[in-house]
Write a structure and sequence with these properties.
GO molecular function, one term: DNA binding
Organism: Nocardiopsis metallicus
Strand content: 5-15%
Radius of gyration: 25 Å
Order of helices and strands: EEEHEHEHHEHHHHHHEEHH
Domain Transposase IS110-like N-terminal: 4-155
Number of helices: 12
Domain Transposase IS116/IS110/IS902 C-terminal: 226-308
Strand order of the largest sheet: 3-2-1-4-5-6
Number of domains: 3
Protein name: Transposase
Helix content: 55-70%
Length: 354
């Protein structure tokens, strides 16, 4: 088995090939991004690896390297994703102290793939890809709205000498109330116009985000009925989970998914006693989704409330909620596996008869 580590960039990709024992094979290969990259990389690796199977390891989530990963998968190659943290750890272990270059990063990516056989495999699911694009768009719109909201709150406080609460612009109705406040204030014409323009932009961002959520609902409801059946899982959080997890079968167990999400506590053995510490790594978007689901369940459901209450004495409130998140990973994992099985059956039924 030959492992190729790829450090992806906007304009070019750096590739390095390693043998099974971690030694370098031949010279590193740099290719420009674009349709020609696939042919150049395949010709390069055939000359190095002959008939050996090849594993392509690309750094990061599906971002700058997505187009290349899709092309490699379409060419019958096996592709895995290497988390940046894993790459950085192997760069510190195997590279010169303090040194950093594209070649060093590519070698670290390949070594991380050699060290971990359970890395996420790249899969092409057109429906999940659509969900991912919409989730990213909604997040961008939300980030813009939050940044603009903070500026407007500050401006209203300065110009009107009126302090608004943090939630004063969290809904379209509240934006309308603040607009009425600005219109009725004795402000200079240009100051009033500038504030009203920003409030109108906030309203527009709300409308655009609502349209994205409507489209997400159309996509997610057929894809994840079991996931949506969990209390506290709405369309947005279901979409986030689908977009981030992708192919749930890449996790052999829910415990592995919990470790990937950062929801599994890390055992501490050097203390001489049985204890665990918080895992501050993992996928933060999935971790946040699990936390929000847990908060809703505690607020609305007696089983979750009792779960937290029974553990607060020994773990504290934060520890009890962390335990609830770990339990929720099991529930979410089972639901996503069930949904994926149903989707697989539906795809088989849709295949034309031969």
């Amino acid at each position: 088995m030959v492992t190729v580590g790829i450090d992806p960039h906007k304009d070019m990709h750096q590739a390095v090939a390693l043998a099974q024992d971690g030694t370098r094979l031949g010279r590193a290969k740099k290719v420009n991004t674009g349709p020609q990259a696939l042919g150049q990389l395949l010709a390069w690796i055939r000359a190095l690896a002959a008939n050996s199977p090849v594993l392509w390891a690309i750094e990061g989530g599906p971002g700058l390297g997505r187009a290349l990963a899709d092309a490699l998968l379409g060419a019958g190659q096996e592709v895995v994703w290497v988390p940046p943290r894993a790459m950085a750890a192997h760069r510190r272990l195997g590279g010169p102290v303090g040194a950093k270059s594209d070649v060093i990063d590519a070698v670290a990516i390949a070594r991380a793939a050699l060290a971990d056989p359970d890395l996420a495999r790249h899969r092409i699911d057109p429906q999940v890809r659509q969900v991912r694009v919409l989730v990213n768009l909604r997040q961008n719109l939300t980030d813009q709205r939050v940044a603009l909201t903070n500026r407007v709150l500050a401006a209203v406080h300065i110009e009107l000498d009126h302090r608004l609460g943090q939630g004063a612009l969290k809904t379209r109705a509240k934006v309308g109330r603040v607009r009425a406040l600005v219109e009725g204030a004795g402000l200079d014409e240009m100051v009033r116009w500038a504030l009203l323009e920003q409030l109108e932009e906030i309203h527009t961002l709300f409308v655009r985000a609502a349209e994205v959520e409507r489209r997400l609902k159309e996509l997610v409801e057929p894809l994840a009925p079991n996931l949506l059946g969990i209390r506290g899982v709405g369309v947005v959080w279901a979409a986030v989970l689908l977009a981030q997890v992708g192919d749930v079968s890449r996790f052999a167990t829910s415990a592995r998914m919990a470790r990937w999400a950062g929801s599994a506590p890390i055992p501490v053995f050097s203390s001489g006693r049985d204890r665990h510490r918080l895992h501050r790594g993992g996928n933060r978007q999935v971790n946040r989704a699990l936390h929000s689901i847990g908060v809703v369940q505690v607020r609305l459901g007696e089983p979750a409330r009792e779960f937290v209450r029974s553990r607060e004495g020994a773990k504290g409130t934060k520890g009890a909620y962390r335990a609830l998140k770990r339990h929720l990973v099991d529930v979410v994992y089972r639901a996503m596996v069930a949904d994926q099985v149903v989707r697989g059956r539906a795809e088989v039924c849709l295949q034309p008869a031969t």
